[in-house]
Design brief:
5-stranded parallel beta sheet, 27 strands, 551 residues, GMP Synthetase, Chain A, domain 3, alpha/beta, Rossmann fold, Luciferase, domain 3
Length: 551
Amino acid sequence: MPAALRLPLDPFYEREARHPGQRFLVQPLGGGRVETLTWADVGHQARCAAHWLRARELPQGSHIAIISKNCAHWIIADLAIWMAGHVSVPLYPNLTAEAVAQVLEHSEAALAFIGKLDDWPAMAPGVAPGLPRISLPLCPEGSFDFTWADLQACSPIQGNPSPDAGQLATIVYTSGTTGLPKGVMHSFASLGFAATQGTQLFGLGEGDRLLSYLPLCHVAERMFVELASIYSGQTVFFAESLDTFVADLQRARPTALFAVPRIWSRFQLGVYAKIPAQRLDFLLGLPWIGPRVGRKVLAGLGLDAVRIALSGAAPVPLSLLHWYRRLGLDVLEVYGMTENCGYSHVCAPGQSKPGWIGQPCPQVEVRIEPTGEVLVRSPATMLGYFKEPQKTAEALTADGFLSTGDKGEQDSQGHLRLTGRLKDIFKTSTGKYVAPAPIENRLAAHPRIEQVCLVGDGLKAPLGLCVLSAEGLAEAREHLCASLESLLHQVNASLDKHERLQRLVVVKERWAVDNGFLTPTLKIKRNVIEATYGPRLEAWSEQGEAVLWQD
């Protein structure tokens, strides 16, 4: 590790001392009210909470859970845990009680901070009776062993405690796309390296504003919001709820924004709900008028101040990226994993190559295995999986490369193109392998398809299972069916013969987190979809229509 590496608490202490009265966190309280916390406010509250945690006399490096939606005190609790010499274990705020119990037990959590939650009664049974619960501000009603006021009654710790670089800082549990979540262990050094490099890469500074709305327990939001703000001094605004999201965006007017493809797609659908796609396309194509229309659309979304727009966690349709560029916003793809702090590849401004993600970030080495698997190595790589030595050995090579599980290729300039997940690839009855992700990406470009999953293991040809958007459900079936059939022919024309789809199947179930079809980060659980629709796939395969509706 370079000697100049700053660990996460160091830049916080610097800002706390240098500009204590500067705005740091802006928390909505409901009814249009907000609470603004300065660097001094955050430092004082974190130091008081750290004093209380130390007084518990827990073993050094104890694991402490944070169960909360994004809010100012999520970050304050995280800082307090680190100042007290412990390890933070964030949980997704929409887990079932069973999943909560599994993570808390596996992580050996000694305490649990409970914050802002939508359905605490459904989650609460997952917290064992003997595990002390500490309520954060904005917490739901319930029975708690200690309140935030109890912690704030302590005097703030003095000095600037700083852990060793190699010390375990956090255990980040994966979203469980392929099964039980794994506990990814990151040191202060890996977090510090990725945060330092990332903020320099994008030129982030004290004048920038962020909106925090994706789960902070996910590595992308943790790095791009929490740690990036600490390292660069940005102001963090929090979203209050889905209902207030547009108002939250407009309040923050973020200058940097990270979103998953589904969020970028929802923005687009929101625009189309107000102005038909063909009308907008016509206006954007007009000289002089087009750019003004684009700026107006971005202003309506609260995105007119964004200078750094990133998309990651899943493939994004090229047509969607092109749509945003026509509005005047260059959305850049990034690639990374929980296991490397999300720090791997980025598409640099002005250097995008259609269909390719981007080039390796500074100090990232890439190797493509004979199987096509992408391997990466950098100082951002995890320590390993908590209590999973076998899985750690499978993920990390002897020379320190991380096996991503993604299949891909590089061009001569180092641009990376992913061609699918190795575990997702299936074989049809013809004996040919099909990688679903690139095909799903093309189907998802349709404005009425909200979600899509390609299936076909053992079938004569793949099927495209589709969930329609609200606008698609409201559209006349005959007209939409013709549009989807045209899409099917267009996509098939671009595929090899063994990849071509037999038909599209419009399913009536919504795929959501609460019914188990999606992970907390909105990724499709293929195993759940295959188990749900498996008994009907053969029958659907034998139908004659190009587009089949599941009624």
